[in-house]
Amino acid sequence: MNEWLIILGIACHALSGVPGLFYSCHDNKGQAQSVRLEVVGSVFGMMGAIGSLWSTPAAGALMRVDGLSVIFLIPIFLIPALGGIYGTEYWSQQAHPHNGRKLRLFYGLVTAALATVAVSANAILFLVAWEVMAMSAFFLVTTEDEDRSVRQAGWLYLITTHISTLCLFALFAVLRVATGSYALGPLSADLASPGVVTAVFILAVLAFGCKAGLMPLHIWLPSAHAMTPSHVSALMSGVLIKIGIYGLIRLTSWLPDPPVWWGGLLLVLGAGSGVLGVVMALGQHDLKRLLTYHSIENIGIIVMGVGLALVGRSLNCMEWVVLGLAGALLHVWNHGLFKALLFLSAGAVIHGTHSRDMDHMGGLGRVMPVTGLCFAVGAIAICGLPPLNGFVSELLIYIGAFRTLGIGQTLSWPAAAFVAPVLALIGALALACFVKAFGAVFLGTARSRHGEHAHEVGRAMTRPMLVLAVMCVGIGIAPIVVTPVLDQGIRAWVPAGIEGVPRVATLVPLGWISLGSLTLVALLGLFTLAMRRRITKGGAASGITWDCGYAAPSARMQYTASSFAQILGTLFAWIQHPRMRVPRVEAVFLGRTTFKSHVPDILLDVILKPLFRFGAKILSSFRFLQAGNIHAYLFYIVLFLIALLLWR
Amino acid sequence: MSHIIIHIILLLVLPPLLLGVIGKTKALFAGRIGPPVLQPYYDLWKLFQKGSVFSTTTTWVFRAGPVVGLATALLAGMLIPFGGHWAPVSFNGDMILFAYLFALGRFFTAAAALDTGSAFEGMGSAREVTFSCLAEPALFFGFLVLAKLSGSLSLTTMLDGTFPLGAGAAAPSLVLVAASLFIVLLVENCRIPFDDPNTHLELTMIHEVMVLDHSGPAFGMILYGAAMKLFVMGAVLLRVVVPFELGNPWYDWGLFMAGMLGLAVLIGMVESMMARFRMVFVPTFLVAACLLSAFGVILLLR
Description:
heterodimer, A: mainly alpha, 28 helices, B: 12 helices
């Protein structure tokens, strides 16, 4: 029953873009149909997913719905539907007659493919769904394909996604040889030698890490997410990259006897991804690129949680497994919620100002109050601050990391404890970055004409954002509601036969967290009232900002996003490699001058592109071989055949 | 129960006194008489009576800054054991809530500064968030040491002065952590040699320049919240330095108050005897603080 509901949901999503193809591309009738289908599909899918929490895990030849699938299915069905509603106004068919129908067709397909990947129990189905997902995403990235930079982002995505697919082919081929079947399931230790298992693990890290955007496999993320329409960015960042995490978690659960270095490797990769991601984010002034680098950071946090769980499984310590995996899985949800929220509010800002450059914005909080509030909620949540949801998932990983010191048990693996200061560094840097983004976009005064004329977006856009914001607050205040689902996911991850897996709620004082959050909210309310009373009593006047005696402060004197990040930029210049054009002071009376700074991607622009250019230069010296003369090619063939004969 | 009430009363009443003691110490060192020890209370009282001016550029964020700063400091104060007494609220993982509450306060203080659209306040908030990036890992390395030493995950038991590993094994790490926490305390609370709360040049300020535009009750709230933050972080440091009890709970309260006042005198002495570092050296010292407590962790992992 539940499986059929999920299949129905997948079908609705897959077909959601089709009716639109039969309507005129100049009116909005088609998009209404497609959104209706999406919402219906999501309701069915959610019912199926949540319903299967109460039934025994279904395992057919093609389809498996267990706790882990459910955890990933819920955001897969939730966020695209909200994004679809948002898209009716943000990317309405009327305003985008050329690409609106294409966008909706592939938007539905990618959602359906994602859900299929999350439930497939067969390698072939998995691969087909994976490829449909990857290709639909390519068409989503290249929505505005008349733009050259969009096409470039699309090609980059296409190449990296196929590297990922290639690794998956190799992975499933190895599994097929080892087990003799395409059915996906736990691999028994007597079927596969340790070498095979290690190869499978490495391939999984490559394939799924590339999809998830784990540093240093992240190169496709920044441009692909920045160039797409914002509700697609929300889907890609909130849901699509998580399917890489799903693959990683799922596969590691099947492999027998993981050695401890697996978990160690994931911890190192996660920590590197987290720190480098947030440092790169600090250097950005394109709002959406900034958010994308934060996705890389959050993927790092999630992978650290998975690494902790793997270490726990290697050393047979279920407490670390539960804390690490619960933290990772909850962060998958939380990141889906707050990153979708942030991308949707960024989209609203872009809708209003027609720019992605934060240094052209400012003061939008007054003209777009709802968007500003939603962005603030997302920013607080992504920094992991109480009382919102990001705090809860980071707390789980923190407690897991502290316990690896041997607290509350005799076993210890203290190397993992260094996750705690790394998380603290990531959190503090993320805070700096989001104060910068929130401040530059929503606070102060408008830095450009576009900003002055911005206005609040309509209800089709604000309502999905408000829903996401409420969910961020809800999980933050009452995490006890979601932990039973996490328990099921953990149960599905731990190999069969291991007993005594503790519940999340027994390891973490969820009640106290709720109490702390509620007290904080109560104190905030109390102090707000008190201050309001005192202010009315004392009388309040308004005036211009006190700029140390300067009477005519202007918008251009404000700190920009670039100036805000300047000190951190100098501290981390050895990572960011910023490219700056600083004006030289030459004349006595200065004329107009410009300052430009740009932080290129650490891997793509600083390492890979020069490397490929160098390779192209070397290889171009062989270009004379390609003369275009058919006789020459025949001659090559003859030479090659003779060489083969000699070799035999 | 009575101890919880005392805890709350001390938390609400004592913080401004620390500022008064610091001021008095600095005055004595400079050969002045200085303002009375209770001057911060008079200041707060006056500010709460005054009217306020709000810049036309500001939104709700500007008004939320002081409120969040004070609420988070107060709640963080409920998680810290004062002297040998248990904190009113204590649970596994409360040290993470403690650190993140101050981060929430920082988010809103810095955002409120940016809300004014002033270049100076922008500078202040950029500096504040930058330096905290390095202070935060130092704090967590310190927590790792305390957690390992006490074998617990809650601030009350982490700071209750029992060391299963033995005091001899604990001492070297504790000394390193105390030094690191002292640097973090000075940076986070904007004291000399990292920041000068009394300087007259806005360009060189960190914390004070962020609150230039706040006036009246809102400014009073900021001052009160900042004093409370100093008090709460001081209480943690005090427990690391003085990890023992006197046996009688009332003597413990006395010891705690004497210790806090001693800490204020110490801060006043540091402020009198040192000049402010150039801003570029602040990160260096914070990295040193990180390394000190990181060595503290490594010493325990032998």
